[in-house]
Amino acid sequence: MRQVYKTICPRYNLAMFKFCPSCSSGKINFADGKAFSCPDCGFLYFHNVAAANGCIISVPEENGERLMFLVRGKEPAKGKLDLPGGFVDAGEGVLEGLHRELKEELGWAPQVSPGASLAAIYKLFASFPNVYPYKGISYNTCDMFFCLSAPGLSEKDLVLERSENVSVCFLKPEEIDYDEVAFDSTRRAIKAYLLYRGLAYR
């Protein structure tokens, strides 16, 4: 398990700290690909996995379904296809974080009746590790993928967060070009969803 972790945690994470944040020692070390430690003062910081979510929104049609994709408007993977979702904020559960992300990114989220559980709306179907590189730091994430059905949903129902995504598209499973999908975990999630639904993929 440790060997696998090292392969997804690039050594340039060392750039996070050139000096110990506690005592300013230059001897700070990134040990085992997961923790910063200082031999001079005993400072220890674990660069833990971040929780993230993604959602496959399916729009049923007479002869199948279409899946919603966003086109990323910034790095990493600018211009590539992605699913709505993002990082879970401090103080949130993954479902609350996903519901918030849909409102922020799409200007839309499924209606939740008073007293209803988000778990009754968003169905967890897969989870995969991912690496999210941003400004020289590589964040290891645990990506949790949910799905929901949204009959009749179309682009006119959405108000995109243009600083994050430049456009939206609705694709049939056979129209998906996996080379154009932003992240490996997302590609794996799409295929897992299609298997979950008993649908074929290329």
Walk me through this protein's architecture.
The chain is 16% helix and 33% strand. The chain is α+β, with helices and mostly antiparallel strands. The strands form 2 sheets. Strands 4, 5, 6, 7, 8, 9 and 10 form a 7-stranded mixed sheet that branches. Strands 1-2-3 form a 3-stranded antiparallel sheet, with no helix packed on it. Strand 1 and strand 2 (35-37) form a beta hairpin. The protein is elongated and about 65 Å long.
- Domain count: the total is 2
**Tell me, what is the CATH class of the largest domain?**
Alpha Beta
Q: End-to-end distance, in Å?
A: 31 Å
Name given to the CATH homologous superfamily of the largest domain? Nucleoside Triphosphate Pyrophosphohydrolase
Number of helices: 3
Instruction: Label the CATH architecture of the largest domain.
Output: Alpha-Beta Complex
| SS class | alpha+beta
| General shape | elongated
